[in-house]
Amino acid sequence: MANLGFSASSLQEAHQDDNVEWREWTPGIAEHAKSEGKPIFFFVSQSGESLGRAMLNETFKNNTIAHLLNEAFVPVLVDANESPELAAFIGKLAVDHFEAAELPHCLWTDEELAPLNGGGYFPPTDDWGGQGFLTVARNVSEQWNSAPDDYRSMAREKLAESTKTESYASKDRTAKLQILSTSTLPEEQTSPQLRPLYFLNLAKSSKILPVPQAQKSLKEFESGLEKIVISAGFDSLEGGFFRGANDESWRLPFFQKATRDQALMLSALAKRISDDPKQGYIDLIRLTVGFIESALAKPNGLKVHFLDGFSENDDPDGAEGLHYVVVKSELEKLSGKSIKTWNLSQNGNLDPEIDFLGFYVESNIPFIESYDILTAAYDSLRAELASIRSSKSPLLSEPIGYTKDNALLIKALAQSAVATGLDQYMDLAQSIETALLKENFELESHTLYQSDSKTKTASSLDYALMIAAELELFTQTNDITYLNKAESLQNAWNNDSRFNPSDPTRLESGVENLDFRSVRDRSYPSVVSTFLENAQTFSENGSECISSEIVENVLTNLPADLETRPELYQSLILTLQNGD
């Protein structure tokens, strides 16, 4: 069971005593910024995100930076887990105009949320290497004060560009998708991130695209997965995928394991097994489910958000992942066969070029060279190394049971049950579904919450993924109860006054002529793609809880850059293609 060691349940709580006077976003922030004559500064991150943690613990601890943010700006801290629509909006502007990539995102805006400047990770000052945060913040302040009209004008042009829409309603869609079908797959990335949604979309695309592109999808799926697994990117001892690596060979992982990543990888593997039942894929599911059950479980039946790379007693400025490392003195407890199987050495098994900071000198990170080692035949050897880990301090985890994470797990486990023929996966999916409705849903008020802390009502992502989970259970079990639950949740979303009644994927922002919604792929499938998949399933089963008018409204206002930047909209494009 997970060690619930984090004292804070969100970024806001964890950083409420910082020198930076962080605020949580409300529409009143825009009015406050206008009355003060200051730009707004948004910082978007989430728990367990290492570069975001570095900025919060280094950049924003700098007294000069904190003073500048408090005096010249209105600083807003956005937890991407708890405000996914706002995070998606800020991220889109940061990516479109300031070369940001993954989280964290920094963005300065005016009171109409028009983007002035921004980016991704910034070190505190220029002497850290690259442009420092202090330089950028001072530049924004100087331009705001010296030429505000010109600065605002350029920002509003950027906002107009990023919010421009185009119709993909039924009468317009076919010709446009013929263009997109030739550019659906994103280019190979050198950054060693897990990208589970990428694998899921590769698995989906192999069933949708023309044969040449489908074959390319399968080849990329197989080679990309092998690069991660036949190394150290998958924990071949206790199960679970690590979120990334420090090196392209995946020998030195980033040691966090996110629940959403496990769920999305399970879904991807289940889809591939239905066409290609490789034993290696089946074993990856077996070990991943075992990890979910043993390491992510909460007493209430839900699963925690992620497992950190640090234990309670670890130095946060030191090496992470010591739980997974095998040191010289521990080799004495292992059989020669275990040492050979996981490539361990008395002198350590990491090249100095990989461990360039020297954190893991004479230490071993177990890795494998064959899918065969994932089979049950190696479980007794696996237990040898696992026993060494069991004597160490337990890893920290965020104690929240998020609706979106557990909903993804329900769907993934149901798919895994059908793909493998193992009923225990369906049993686990159904038990999580029962716990999720008990802990995160209030029956009397028909209110869905973001998590079992019940501090915030559901986001559009929570609604979409929870409905998708119920529909998956209905599809796989043919139990009408799950369809009824999905309809009840969809009706609750339709009637939630925070969302646009003609398009519930849009969250009212409180800023005139602006709303927030998730259309691009991020760590989770986009809300719009999931909503449209749900709408199709409802329609196929005679349900009218999502009207054809609402579907057309969604399709009529899709991003104008869908054709020019298809790699950012993979889930949506595949959903549109599958619907034709």
UniProtKB/TrEMBL annotation:
SUPFAM superfamilies: Six-hairpin glycosidases (SSF48208), Thioredoxin-like (SSF52833). GO terms for biological process: carbohydrate metabolic process. Coiled coil: none annotated. Residues 4-156 form the Spermatogenesis-associated protein 20-like TRX domain. PANTHER family: SPERMATOGENESIS-ASSOCIATED PROTEIN 20. It comes from the Bacteria. Pfam families: Thioredox_DsbH. This is Thioredoxin domain-containing protein.
